[in-house]
Amino acid sequence: MSAYFLTNPFRFFFPLAWGMGIWGGLMWVFFALGWIAYPAQAHPQSMVVGFLLGHIMGFLLTAGPRFTATGDLKASEFSLAAASFAAVCLSVMLGAPVQTVFGLAALSIAVLAGILGRRFLARTKSPPVEFIFLPFGLVAGLVGASGQAFASSLESDVLRRLASLFLYEGFVLSLVLGVGGRLAPFLMGHGLEPTVSQDKAAVKSGVSRLVIPLALFWMTYLFEAASIADVVQTSAWRLLRGLVVAYVLLRDWKIGRLPKAGTRQGWGIWLSAWMMVSGSLISVYAGWKIHSIHLFYIGGLGLLTLMVATRVTLAHGSKRLLLESTSRVLYPVVAMILAASITRFSAGFLPQSYFSHLAYAGGLWGIALAIWGWVFLREGFYQRLGSADG
Do residues 124 and 69 make contact, with C-beta atoms less than 8 angstroms apart? Predict the structure, then answer.
């Protein structure tokens, strides 16, 4: 049983993250029915430090040892990571104070960073050059979660704003641009397999290609936080960041081309990339920001997370990768997630039915996750007879 989780730790993290994602969406249905109070804190907590963080930990703790060729997780590594994330989920579900929720989230990110850092130093092969975004993302997540935990003690509005930007945007988006820079093109049929090593010339060229986008990307968060009182400057920095994201996705993910892979999953990733671009650019308009950013979150990050999780569960579970191209379940899943994102975006323009639209969007999202989990999450728990690694 220990090898079952140490080799493929996603088997622990994905189900918890999946459950937090369903709860994060359905709470809007429960609020509309009058069953719970307005989930101003619970919803973003469930989605960011529950759904997204859990999938990030599950993916990186599964892929990290493979990309660095350092062997399975140790029992102590898995136990610490699993306990810290389980504590995050429990604190969110119990409605714990924000200091507790985000303090535990910071601990989980620190544990993840520590495990990956040790693996990187002990590596026998190097991860793809695109992973240069990864340490910056982990730093953003750690600073952001810590800042949110101690927000009431921060005297500077700029620091509070920076912590929020780092946790809710910079953290996940950095990891998406990094890990996704190698994984997404491959899954869409445009790039090398992520585990294929690159020669020194290719690595040097790749680093040079990524330095300027990485620097600009981080600069936009610092200056947006500093421009909190100036709507025009804030929008300008958001526009620059949106353009950087669009540039990286067009150049490295090759989303300007239709997917070659011929899988429903490849199309899902392609659609999620365009939702990230559109959500980022539309959010430049201050009056639409809170609504358009959900195009980025639901149709972008949410859909991308499920598409990547599909590959992880199939590749390391039942080995039935054929389901990526044959399972019709991905059609309604992708359609409902896109419908949820558009419904949530439209709520901002329909004040008389605002909360009902939040409930429709949350319901669609929850049903989509339930269907996906019934098929693909189960696949991740199957393993070939006599195989410890699944």
Answer: yes
Read off the tokens for 216. 């600009």
d(CA 16, CA 168): 20
Dump pLDDT digits (tens) for 288-302: 888 899 999 999 999
Question: Could you give the C-alpha distances from 105 to 51, 81, 111, 271, in angstroms and in order?
Answer: 12, 11, 10, 29
The ranges assigned to domains in the chain are: 1-127
CA atoms within 13 A on the CB side of 25: 27
DSSP states of 50-99 as a string? IIIHHHHHHHHHHHHHHHHT--SPPHHHHHHHHHHHHHHHHHHHTT--HH
- Cα–Cα distance measured from residue 130 to residue 252, given in angstroms and rounded to the nearest whole number: 9
> pTM of this prediction?
0.93
Indicate the DSSP class of residue 95.
T
Amino acid in the structure at residue 213: P
Under 8 Å between Cβ of 141 and 165: no
Write down the pLDDT at residue 200. Answer: 57
Amino acid letter, 210: L
**CA–CA dist 349, 43 (Å, integer):** 21
Chain segment 116-169, per-residue pLDDT in tens: 999 999 998 888 888 888 999 999 999 999 999 987 777 788 888 999 999 999
Which two three-digit tokens encode residue 134? 């990864």
Distance in angstroms (rounded) separating the CA atoms of residues 385 and 96: 42
* pLDDT given for residue 37 in this prediction: 94
Question: In angstroms, rounded to a whole number, what is the distance separating the alpha carbons of residues 173 and 38?
Answer: 27
The residues near 211 (Cβ < 8 Å, ≥ 6 apart) are none
Residue 377 CA to residue 390 CA, distance in Å, equals: 14
Q: Which residue bears the tokens 């008389």?
A: 352
CB count within 10 Å of CB 99 equals 15
CA atoms of 312 and 8, how far apart (whole Å): 9
Burial class (CB in 10 A: 0-12, 13-18, 19+), 197: exposed
96: burial class by Cβ within 10 Å (0-12, 13-18, 19+)? middle
